[in-house]
Design a protein that fits this description.
Blueprint (H helix, E strand, L loop, with lengths): L2 H6 L5 E6 L6 H12 L3 E3 L6 H8 L6 H16 L7 E5 L5 H10 L4 E6 L2 H10 L10 H7 L10 E5 L4 H21 L4
Helix pairs in contact: 2-8, 4-5
Length: 189
Amino acid sequence: MSPPEQEQQPRQRLAVVVMGVSGTGKSSVAAALAGTLRLPWVDGDHLHVPAAVARMQAGLPLSDDDRWPWLDRIGACLADGTAAPGGVVVACSALKRAYRDRLRAAAPGLRFVFLDGPAQLIRQRLEQRRGHYMPPALLDSQLHTLERPGDDEPDVLHAGIDAPVALAVAHIGARLLQSKKADSTKAPA
């Protein structure tokens, strides 16, 4: 394909959720990944209503009823092609399959990056973190709620949390761009 033909094709939008339990580095990875991909990023924590934040600060886990409106705000952000025409990266726990499916329905073509690692390492990170409303005491609740993405969710890239952020982001970014390129070359059915 010649360069003029390439220029005429619209750029495929890339919406990505960096997911996992609290303490896996979602915000750090999402911000760095957005920089690598030259996309804006949103911290899903900032889309919680004050009552939900207060509940978590008090050490109380959120219920599904607390999460649905929050997930709808995140879905709207992911789908907003006017605010982010090239795409967007969002940090969001997306712990259950039903949550991920809700986000997929809001933003078709969505990709997920699942950050995962040993509970002991995650707990250590949470205990060292300062200035965040999510207390380490809620980690067990999040781990209990987590439904790890399986092979039946092919739009999820799995990434360990033991590598430095820059190295992890380089690897994740390359995999996302490769899958995006593969999607754009598929012939329509």
